[in-house]
Amino acid sequence: GKWTLGTKIGSGAFGVVHVGMNTQTGTFMAVKSIRMERAVMKDVRREIDLLKSIQHRNVVRYYGAEIDAKYLHIFQEWVSGGSVTGMLCKFGAFAPEVLRSYLCQILEGLSYLHSNDIMHRDIKGSNILVSNEGVVKLADFGASKKLAKLQGEAMMSLTMRGTPYFMAPEMFEERYNLNADIWSVGCVAVQMATGTPPFKDLGLSNPVALFRYIKKLDGALPCLKKLPVTDDTRLTYQLFERFLVRCFCPDPQKRPKAEECLLDPFFV
């Protein structure tokens, strides 16, 4: 169909994301443009095949793709509220009610993905979008799928700008399964509750130092000094911390599945 690009809303190693408009219907969408010479076409095809198969309220919808002389353009649902990370920058840490609602929806989307044997691999605040109505949607499977292919070099080149703070310890060792996503949910939970990703305040210089620190924790929670506990919210945050203990279980096999997390007392 006919479409045109608007404001740039994001960029990464493999491409740029703009707001787009369908010039025939006037509707908005997110357009991910990937330079063909930089893209690993096998990965791109995998992303498109994956997106086509996904239909869930808490996962961004896929509309189609188009190739021109320089770019592959992938058209997806435009989520107007932006990312959780962006919201935290604007509004600060979320109140317990919002925290519970958003986490519940993240887990609903993740449960759907896992039931279809799809691992996200890159759950973090910037990959979780929120609509104006407060509907949460998991986004950016492209980056997550590429991680599988790039594991070897990625561990060498990752900086401390973002993703490593959300990575399960077994991902540093390149031996992981669906349960690594649950660790990342715990990290996003801390980010939403405090305004900062876990471990970021430690000032560690590289992923290896972070991995060593996490291994030493051996199941202990990351520092939660910033939780705004009051007499009214004390019980809620106690339940929240118990939920985090389950997410941060060092043994991946003992971590709860996404659907089991939804039955946690924090949500019930």
TrEMBL record:
Q: Does the keyword ATP-binding apply?
A: yes
- List GO molecular-function terms, semicolon-separated: ATP binding; protein serine/threonine kinase activity
Residue stretches spanning the membrane: none
Gene3D superfamilies noted in UniProt: Transferase(Phosphotransferase) domain 1
Which InterPro entries does its entry note? Answer: Kinase-like_dom_sf, MAP_kinase_kinase_kinase, Prot_kinase_dom, Protein_kinase_ATP_BS, Ser/Thr_kinase_AS
Q: Which Pfam families match?
A: Pkinase (PF00069)
> In which family does this protein belong, per the annotation?
Belongs to the protein kinase superfamily.
Q: What is this protein called?
A: Protein kinase domain-containing protein
Q: What species does this protein belong to? A: Phaeodactylum tricornutum (strain CCAP 1055/1)
